[in-house]
Specification:
It contains three helices and nine strands, in the order H-E-E-E-E-E-H-E-E-E-E-H. With 110 residues, it is an alpha+beta fold. The model has no long low-confidence stretch (mean pLDDT 92).
């Protein structure tokens, strides 16, 4: 992984389950990982290895879904021997309802 989240970035994320039972439309997306046409929008972190967020793989919005994401697996993911997953250092924390790619996936629940 070229650009990694800092410990401060990770500590600012809500703990797993903290946003359960609420409309996800207003949940804050705290981080974004990407590689090629794959995106992972992060809303929670367990403090060790497991994120919860929205995953879009290979630009496939029909199969995009909310779920658990392993930080270790993201760090190990490679395309060929050259490309690695990156953490978006310029990500501005926004509500789920304001992330265009999540809206394209039809997974904003009010």
């Amino acid at each position: 992984m070229w650009a990694k989240p800092t410990m401060q970035d990770l500590k600012r994320m809500p703990k797993l389950g903290e946003t359960d039972g609420k409309s996800n439309a207003t949940t804050i997306v705290k981080g974004h990982f990407f590689i090629g046409s794959c995106d992972w929008y992060i809303t929670e972190f367990d403090g060790e290895d497991t994120f919860f967020g929205f995953a879009i793989l290979n630009g496939d919005y029909q199969m995009a879904e909310w779920g658990y994401i392993s930080f270790n697996e993201l760090k190990a993911l490679r395309v060929g021997e050259v490309f690695e997953v990156d953490f978006d250092k310029h990500w501005k924390k926004v509500q789920v309802q304001d992330v265009e790619k999540i809206k394209l996936g039809g997974r904003v629940y009010k």
